[in-house]
Amino acid sequence: xxxxxxxxxxxxxxxxxxxxxxxxxxxxxxxxxxxxxxxxxxxxxxxxxxxxxxxxxxxxxxxxxxxxxxxxxxxxxxxxxxxxxxxxxxxxxxxxxxxxxxxxxxxxxxxxxxxxxxxxxxxxxxxxxxxxxxxxxxxxxxxxxxxxxxxxxxxxxxxxxxxxxxxxxxxxxxxxxxxxxxxxxxxxxxxxxxxxxxxxxxxxxxxxxxxxxxxxxxxxxxxxxxxxxxxxxxxxxxxxxxxxxxxxxxxxxxxxxxxxxxxxxxxxxxxxxxxxxxxxxxxxxxxxxxxxxxxxxxxxxxxxxxxxxxxxxxxxxxxxxxxxxxxxxxxxxxxxxxxxxxxxxxxxxxxxxxxxxxxxxxxxxxxxxxxxxxxxx
Amino acid sequence: xxxxxxxxxxxxxxxxxxxxxxxxxxxxxxxxxxxxxxxxxxxxxxxxxxxxxxxxxxxxxxxxxxxxxxxxxxxxxxxxxxxxxxxxxxxxxxxxxxxxxxxxxxxxxxxxxxxxxxxxxxxxxxxxxxxxxxxxxxxxxxxxxxxxxxxxxxxxxxxxxxxxxxxxxxxxxxxxxxxxxxxxxxxxxxxxxxxxxxxxxxxxxxxxxxxxxxxxxxxxxxxxxxxxxxxxxxxxxxxxxxxxxxxxxxxxxxxxxxxxxxxxxxxxxxxxxxxxxxxxxxxxxxxxxxxxxxxxxxxxxxxxxxxxxxxxxxxxxxxxxxxxxxxxxxx
Lengths: 377, 331
What we know:
The complex is a heterodimer.
Chain A: H1 9-37, H2 41-46, E1 56-63, E2 71-73, E3 76-82, E4 89-94, E5 108-110, E6 116-119, E7 124-129, E8 140-147, H3 154-161, H4 165-196, H5 202-212, H6 218-230, H7 237-261, H8 265-273, H9 278-289, H10 291-307, H11 310-315, H12 325-335, H13 340-373
Antiparallel strand pairs in A: 1-8, 2-3, 3-7, 4-8, 5-6, 6-7
Helix pairs in contact in A: 1-13, 3-13, 4-7, 4-10, 5-7, 7-10, 8-9, 10-13, 12-13
Chain B: H1 2-32, H2 40-77, H3 91-98, H4 100-131, H5 137-145, H6 152-162, H7 175-182, H8 196-222, H9 226-234, H10 239-250, H11 252-267, H12 271-276, H13 286-295, H14 301-330
Helix pairs in contact in B: 1-2, 2-14, 3-14, 4-5, 4-8, 4-11, 5-8, 8-11, 11-14, 13-14
């Protein structure tokens, strides 16, 4: 707690407030979509998501029954029914478009020729008249209804089935898991050689790896796609696994080498003196000790591949059953741009797994970031 | 489902193949050059020369085939015509120089370069400083860092919802328009607003990258030697001076790293523009323009490659800087 001398209670408050503001600013965008994914289409259109926790009021009108529905009761002609749908409450009602909230529930409105209308709080209305009704069209009753907040899982059920997101989820899994595991294997061996073995060209190779870290992926797409076509690989999972492996390797080698180079020299040298082969040293000593770095890279690569759109668009086909989740999301943005209930639920299914990984393994992610960046400074 | 089984099989096959290669190759080397017998010394020397290449071979193969080869091939293709059938010299670059859309894209890219790294780094620095001072800092950090896990496409959906437009008189469901109407203005179709829509797209990337800047800068701030801070406090520095005069100058190196890392991300920005506006209404950027030339309508690989090379040229200074920094560190 350095700096106590320079701090006052006011400053502490200001800092807390500023932090709260930042957090709200950063969380609200995601929260908005999350809330919307649990609202149905009408709710989304009727009010902003920030009102989702409050009862929603809506104005509409209902037509009362016609002359055909009337019954005679104690000398009066009566038409009865309900103006409310299940789950709604009545806030106010009226008989003309100009004054749709003229009456409170339970009031009685006098209509022309001795007729009267009353609407109870539970929505039941009663239209009475001393003479038989002759209307062919029902009287309009204007109602202001109030619906309690409610959440629905229908959007999720719908996008997983009908919009093909369930299938896309499996596709994404299929792409991601091998594309995360394979580069780790290859990079770990290379990183060990670069960190602990002496050979000509080592420094050059290391520089090349660092340089390749920033090569724009865009550059690689067309030549690789053509290469895949020429060797008969075409578009498919094998191609995308190999591509992701290639693109992920520089970071993997860089991170792992930096970590392995920091391991204590004595362990490795004493193992060599004891007659262990390089292969044994690597498998028995280096690999277990490098677990944190392996985990860091695995998380990076997992997030990167899972969230990737470009590589998947190019190296996998664009048939509906071949799309990964980012691809489906992109299609939906184009074709269902205004259907926020669909988009919100789809987006959340696609970011659920990365968010889970993020919150569960944040420690390793941060460690990896620090190893990759701070050292370079 | 069979794809998942295929994936599982591939992982097993991949793991098996890798292990078999490394184990087998090492064993073979030990058999060919045994560290025993009359020529033990020579054999050990030889084995030590070959073995590193057994370890590093697959990686070199992949890097060469999937990164180095494409760079060279793209360079070649940028001097060829649409299908790569014949050489056209500098025609593609000459076309670029005269193309209005390219000028728009490169100007936008520079605008992104000016705004995004600076803003994300600055907010990240402020966030790092204040979250280190509060009791719930860990939670605050994790919330600001969270967008990092969200895909650009997912972020595009999230932010498009914020910019959503409904005709005047209807309930505004987009946060920005709701706020705008609340201030007494009429709702806007934000993403089609020339020039300003660029900043709305940048907001998405800033939102994603700030957490990254914060995490790294926070670690750097914590690494500052206590003595300098204590000395400054004893000399009567106020909190502002402490931060900007004492702390920030000591972490310039890290700030530069964060800045360049975000700069590289910005140069390659694609998904956000692709899904939110597809480069229309004056928001084109290089990466999206390249995608359009390579994969939309009748592909023109020559022009697409030329644009990719421009991106590469812009990234190269960062690359050299990165290599030099890494070499300095390893000595």
